[in-house]
Design a protein that fits this description.
Layout: H1 2-14, H2 18-29, H3 34-39, H4 47-86, H5 105-119, E1 123-124, E2 130-132, H6 133-136, E3 155-156, E4 161-163, H7 169-177, E5 184-193, E6 205-215, H8 220-235, E7 241-248, E8 251-260, E9 277-286, H9 288-293, E10 302-308, H10 310-318, H11 331-340
Parallel strand pairs: 1-5
Antiparallel strand pairs: 2-4, 3-4, 5-6, 6-10, 7-8, 8-9, 9-10
The protein binds phenylalanine (PHE).
Length: 348
């Protein structure tokens, strides 16, 4: 037994890793190992001898087991620390950048306008881009032979259908859909189409935001108050607005609305063409014929309507010089825009 122990100590000295150690364990403690070999000698002994031999062999087995376990533990620790130092993660290494998307400047303006009007109790509604002549023109007081139809060169799809030239048809649709013929307060953002040669300030497809309020006793003063809030919110608290007479077939009176120049504070600059004022939208009191076409009694109800171009608002507000930037999907413009938000166009 002493020999076995000495042999074990020698073998353990040679052990370099867990796999060597396992070989040693099998050699001594395995089914055909040295301890088992000794155990099998038991049958040749007398009962007396069996007892002391049994005790000794069990002690030896325990001792060997402990020695192997101890070595196993220290080998495991060693392997673990080697692995940890080898597989070390360098947390100072820069990660892979995730490219972040951002809102398109037009959507930003549209959402800003929506939020403002929602806060004043308006609903946001939409209408179809492929529209009937009936809603785009006729119900807006533009009968078939009306000369003002020429002012809006349209993309007709059939005799009856065209790509809407304005968001105003949503006025007609909303009045028609309102079965109680009660008050209405809506804005309607969306795309519109006109035959135009594209250049820095013209596009055959652009956006409008329509507004419509109908109630008893609505007056031009309500329109002015509402648009004043709008102008201050979009262009700054110091802004004032002014009305100029204009013409739209679906409003009477019709007006064009200017905002005092936010660039030069009305002193005169290139943006306001030295007038101190910038035109921002068209508006007016809903024409009695439009109310009638929508099933409203013009003696009971009055309304105001307005239409604005978010492209124009974004160009003024952010100093963007070319309307085509909005549609070319040039990532440099979009990145630039996000970087300079509220600043000026890189080309200016
Ligand atoms: N639809 C008009 C346009 O496209 C704008 C407008 C809307 C004017 C509502 C008055 C009232 O020019």
């Amino acid at each position: 037994m002493q020999n076995i122990k000495e042999e074990l100590l020698l073998k353990l000295k040679e052990v370099k890793n867990l796999s060597d150690l396992n070989d040693v364990r099998v050699l001594f403690l395995g089914k055909k190992g040295k301890i088992q070999e000794k155990m099998s000698l038991m049958s040749t002994l007398s009962n007396e001898e069996k007892k002391s031999f049994g005790q000794e062999i069990n002690l030896l087995k325990e001792e060997i087991t402990n020695l192997i376990e101890e070595l196993k533990f220290s080998l495991e620790q060693k392997e673990l620390s080697e692995k940890l130092s080898k597989d070390k993660i360098d947390i100072s290494l820069p990660g892979t950048k995730i490219v972040k998307g951002s809102k398109h400047p037009l959507n930003k303006v549209i959402e800003e306008v929506e939020e403002l009007f929602i806060s004043m109790g308006y609903d946001v509604v939409t209408g179809p881009e492929i529209e009937k002549d009936l809603y785009n023109f006729e119900k807006l007081n533009l009968p078939k032979d009306h000369p003002a139809r020429d002012a809006q060169d349209s993309f007709y799809l059939t005799e009856e259908y065209l790509l809407r030239t304005q968001t105003s048809p949503v006025q007609a649709r909303t009045m028609e859909n309102n079965l109680e013929k009660g008050p209405i307060r809506i804005i309607c953002p969306g795309k519109v189409y006109r035959r135009d040669n594209d250049d820095a300030t013209h596009s055959h497809q652009f956006h409008q935001i329509e507004g419509l309020v109908i109630d008893e006793n609505i007056s031009l003063a309500h329109l002015k108050g509402t648009l004043e809030v709008f102008a201050k919110r979009m262009f700054g608290n110091e802004r004032e607005i002014r009305f100029r007479p204009s013409f739209f077939p679906f409003t009477e009176p019709s007006i064009e609305v200017d905002v005092s120049c936010f660039k030069c504070n009305s002193k005169g600059c290139s943006i306001c063409k030295n007038t101190g004022w910038i035109e921002i939208l068209g508006a007016g009191m809903v024409h009695p014929n439009v109310l009638l076409a929508g099933g409203y009694d013009p003696n009971k109800y009055k309304g105001f309507a307005f239409g604005m171009g978010p492209e124009r608002i974004a160009m003024l507000k952010y100093g963007i010089s070319d309307i085509r930037h909005f549609y070319s999907n040039d990532i440099r413009f979009l990145n630039d825009f996000n970087r300079i938000e509220g600043g000026v166009d890189s080309e200016d």
